[in-house]
């Protein structure tokens, strides 16, 4: 699911992202800012922040019960307020589900710049 989310971010598929983001979703960006589900989706809709490409170099998942954690590294090309930026980031995503019959939802995402 992690790869699909990155694909939807690049394709700006807001409706698809909205369905997989938990109602209490929070994203912590590499610049230190945080946004909750509605704010993050609104930012993507506005066009002031676009994912131009995401190339994952490595990732790994750990699942325990109804929680999954995905960690990875990759190259993220983004446009912020018209300025193109290429970043190498490490990231962590936290997924949750109510039970084994319910779909996974993204609860949190965090990205950090790799120097």
TrEMBL record:
<dbReference type="InterPro" id="IPR027843">
    <property type="entry name" value="DUF4440"/>
</dbReference>
<dbReference type="InterPro" id="IPR032710">
    <property type="entry name" value="NTF2-like_dom_sf"/>
</dbReference>
<dbReference type="Pfam" id="PF14534">
    <property type="entry name" value="DUF4440"/>
</dbReference>
<feature type="domain" description="DUF4440">
    <location>
        <begin position="6"/>
        <end position="105"/>
    </location>
</feature>
<protein>
    <submittedName>
        <fullName>Nuclear transport factor 2 family protein</fullName>
    </submittedName>
</protein>
